[in-house]
Specification:
Its EC number is 2.3.1.12. GO terms for molecular function: dihydrolipoyllysine-residue acetyltransferase activity. By secondary structure, the chain is α/β, with parallel strands linked by helices. It folds into 2 domains: about 100 residues, OB fold (Dihydrolipoamide Acetyltransferase, E2P) (Beta Barrel), CATH 2.40.50; about 260 residues, 3-Layer(aba) Sandwich (Rossmann fold). Helices cover about 30% and strands about 25% of the residues. Helix 2 packs across helix 3, helix 4 packs antiparallel against helix 5 and helix 5 crosses helix 6.
């Protein structure tokens, strides 16, 4: 009967995820479940994600309790048809738990490479690499106030046949807090130097928000390094910017004031976890972090408008390019993607905010993989 039992295990939402917390079960034990149905909410270090059932069946057991934190791969529940006896389920659970404990003891501390610190000129950048293979590498560039964890649901998906690199821009995450003049051009120069340091000559660039403007500057100054452009809700294609988000992100210093600001980022507000809010508050308290954000905001969004108009760069880019945008973006308007050359496909995702790579990761990953082939 064990072949009629399907384990529900803690998923691995991103390269750096080693554990998750069950914040809630969305269906009770004994309920019928369809494959792909969201059956639980799982909180990682950055976001809360709905967990889709891997198969159809009856949820016979909830092993994990709400509020419990478990490692990736741990047993959360069991799917089985009513014909399967309780004794068979008990035996399946006991064997799974014993095998899982044994595997964990034999494993290395982690099945992913930890971020490393890379010196680039007088800066130190935190870099997360994954994957290997002969295909052209992929570089991920995050946006204002973000870090490499913004790609936690994407980098793994593109690492099956190639090297992938995500990094914290200067002034962000674990990188040096010196942002220079804070302009996209300055960040693009640092990005080019990082690629040289890593021995990478050409990359598919995946960039989000302010990272989009940085990617376009990189394509302008170092076109030989950019094999393709996938721009997700990019800056640099219009003038408007939600300054309530920018100014609020800089000034908010408590969970009560920061959480409403972060809500601008997503259509589904439940994705903004308490841990995410607390991590950003801790980051902003680091020496130089706040000053760096202020410098970037002043350089990139003077007088509440975007400083850079890079539409001509995108229009003249020789390689393949695409735009991905959430229709419900509250930070940058998807209208900025209008009137681009017909050769640049634009994907608008419904019920999606400023971070499609988190809200609609499967759709975004499919588009990224298609362009990078």
């Amino acid at each position: 009967m064990t072949d009629l039992i399907t384990p529900i295990t803690m998923p691995k939402f991103g390269l750096a995820m080693t554990e998750g917390k069950i914040t809630s079960w969305n269906i009770p034990s004994g309920a019928q479940v369809e494959a792909g149905q969201e059956i639980a909410d799982i909180e990682t270090t950055k976001i809360t994600n709905g967990y889709e059932s891997p198969a159809s069946g009856t949820l016979r057991r909830q092993i994990a309790t709400e509020g419990e934190t478990l490692p990736v791969g741990a047993l959360l529940g069991v799917l089985a048809e009513p014909a399967v006896s309780d004794a068979d389920i008990d035996a399946f659970i006991a064997k799974f738990q014993a095998d899982f404990s044994s595997d964990n003891a034999a494993d290395t501390p982690a099945d992913h490479a930890e971020p490393i610190m890379v010196s680039v000129g007088d800066l130190t950048l935190r870099v997360q690499e994954a994957g290997q293979g002969d295909a052209t590498p992929v570089l991920f560039i995050h946006g204002f106030g973000g870090d490499l964890s913004n790609w936690m649901l994407n980098q793994n998906a593109l690492s099956t046949d190639r090297r992938t690199v995500a990094f914290d821009l200067p002034g962000h995450g674990g990188s040096s807090k010196n942002v220079g003049d804070g302009t996209p051009a300055g960040f693009a120069a640092t990005t080019a130097a990082l690629l040289d340091k890593l021995g990478i000559t050409s990359v598919h660039v995946v960039a989000h928000s302010l990272g989009g403007a940085i990617a376009l500057e990189l394509a302008k100054t170092c076109p030989q390094k950019v094999a393709s452009l996938s721009l997700i809700a990019p800056a640099g294609l219009g003038q408007s910017i939600n300054m309530d988000f920018i100014e609020g992100f800089i000034s908010a210093d408590r969970r009560k004031t920061l959480e409403p600001v972060l809500n601008y980022l997503v259509h589904d507000k439940t994705l903004i976890s308490r841990k995410m809010v607390e991590d950003i508050i801790r980051f902003k308290r680091l020496d130089g972090a706040l000053q760096g954000l202020q410098t970037i905001a002043k350089a990139c969004f003077p007088n509440g408008r975007q400083a850079e108009d890079l539409r001509s760069v995108l229009a003249s880019f020789a390689g393949p390019a695409q735009i991905i945008w959430g229709e419900a973006d509250e930070v940058l308007s998807p209208n900025d993607a209008k009137n681009l050359p017909d050769t640049i496909p634009v994907t608008l995702l419904p019920q999606t905010g400023h971070m499609p790579q988190l809200e609609k990761a499967a759709d975004v990953n499919a588009a990224l993989i298609k362009l990078a082939k």
